[in-house]
Design brief:
six-stranded mixed beta sheet, alpha/beta, 17% strand, globular
C-alpha cells in the first residue's frame, strides 16, 4: 500500500469478489441501478430502520438465509449491509462460497448510512 493511499484511504477495498463501498458509492449504485439491497440484520433491527427498498434476510437464521439466496441468480451482483459491517462481511464470504460472483458490502453498515 502506498503512502498516499494509507494517508487518504483507498476509495474501494476489494477482498476476493467482495467489494466494500462507502456510503456514497453504495447509494449511487443501488439508486442508479434500481437495486434492492439485502439487510442481513435481525427482523427487530430491520424494523427499527433500514435502507429504502431493502429486503431483510437474517444472517443469524442460517436455514432461511441459505434457502433465500439459493433461489437467486448467482451471476447478478448482490448488495448487502448489516449494523456496522462485521456481520455483512461474514454474510458476503458465505455468499461467495454459495457461488455468487459479485458481492457489494456497505462500509460501516447501517450505522454509516444515517
Amino acid at each position: 500500500m502506498s503512502f498516499l493511499s494509507k494517508l487518504f484511504g483507498k476509495k474501494e477495498e476489494t477482498t476476493g469478489n467482495i467489494k466494500v463501498l462507502n456510503k456514497n458509492e453504495y447509494a449511487t449504485q443501488i439508486v442508479s441501478n434500481n437495486i434492492k439491497p439485502f439487510d442481513v440484520r435481525t427482523p427487530s433491527e430491520f424494523n427499527s430502520g433500514h435502507i429504502k427498498k431493502a429486503i431483510n434476510v437474517d444472517f443469524f437464521n442460517p436455514s432461511n438465509f441459505n434457502n433465500y439466496f439459493e433461489k437467486l441468480d448467482k451471476e447478478k451482483p448482490v448488495y448487502i449491509y448489516c449494523r456496522s459491517g462485521a456481520r455483512s462481511k461474514k454474510a458476503a464470504r458465505k455468499l461467495l462460497h454459495m457461488g455468487f460472483a459479485q458481492v457489494y458490502d456497505l462500509k460501516g453498515g447501517y450505522n454509516s448510512w444515517n
